[in-house]
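JOB MANIFEST
job_type = single_chain_structure
chain_count = 1
residues = 243
[input]
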Amino acid sequence: MTDVRGSATDPQRFSRMRLGLGVLLRVVAIFSVFAATMFIAAGRLDWWEAWTFWVIYFLISVASTLELTFRDPALVRERSQAFADASSKRWDRIIVVANALLSLSLFAMIGLDAGRFGWSGVPGVVRALGGVAVLFSFGMSTWASRANTYLSALVRIQDERGHQAVTDGPYLFIRHPMYAGMCLYDLGVPLLLGSWWSLVVSGIMIAVLIARTAMEDRTLRGELVGYSDYAKRVRWKLIPGVW
């Protein structure tokens, strides 16, 4: 006798597995480029702190990618195809590309500073705080993706998916928790790996994120039904009580 339930779900499972594999390959490619940039700048491979960071970061990313693929494949598809959609904002495409280049610059600077020349002397306590900030950034990103199935990689109104304002999870406290997590990451990684000088690049990245937050918030107020009312209830964009 044929298992009707099993046969009905097999195409879905295959589709999700194929989607997950595609995303994982992109994750591997991105990690390879960023890690190679840092190690090349460092001029050496015998850097255990860096290896520990990349291995743990990679495993967390793979686990979260697989979990998200099977929990919310529609979101993974949206994030994967955002650049192919003409409805995404041109200014946001420019910002995303700029952020990718700045990320490469950040890892290159960390490699030059902490890995090659040793310009900085970051105390162990500060490095530990940097690690805590990075972990919090991972947690914030995961929490936001669980609450918001419309969390696209680019700013766009997803009318075809019934896009609406999300008001639960971290969105109860701030309007852009993913960007808040990214700011924590940009601050935490240089400190964790022992580079004061890299905070210069981090500052530029955070300034770009703040600009992106303001522009996205303005777009959502003007184009997403219900967002203006939500913004009146939740006043803060990135940091409760500050902005």
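[summary]
Residues 1-8 have pLDDT under 50 and may be disordered.
The CA atoms of residues 186 and 202 lie 5 Å apart.
exit_status = 0
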